[in-house]
Amino acid sequence: MSLLVHNVSVTTCQYIMRITFAYDKKARIPHYQVRHGDIQESQFEEVFSGPMVVIGRRGSALKAVGRTRTGRFLTVVFIRRGGDDYHVITAWPSKRTQIVLWHREMSNR
Length: 109
Prior knowledge:
Shape: globular
Structural class: alpha+beta
Distance between the termini: 39 Å
Number of strands: 7
Order of helices and strands: EEEHHEEEEH
Helix content: 10-25%
Number of domains: 1
Mean pLDDT: 86
Radius of gyration: 14 Å
Number of helices: 3
Largest sheet: 7 strands, mixed
């Protein structure tokens, strides 16, 4: 698998969030869409704008669970490059155990 970078800048009424995506060169789509084509790019802005729970880390890559405005949970593997600059490696709909961890952490905050 060969990955490139796909850039997206999301502008909200409050700030600009920069989100880039690892790109699958062979499939010619962002890597997360190879197996999860039902996830929309706009949902990443929603997830990164709300509370997230980090459930894993490998080097500088974080694995976190977050929720969209419609209540959909996504697990995102990403690198935070500072401020509101994120590089998404991959993502998928969260599993039940990941959602339970998110709820448990939110109740402790």
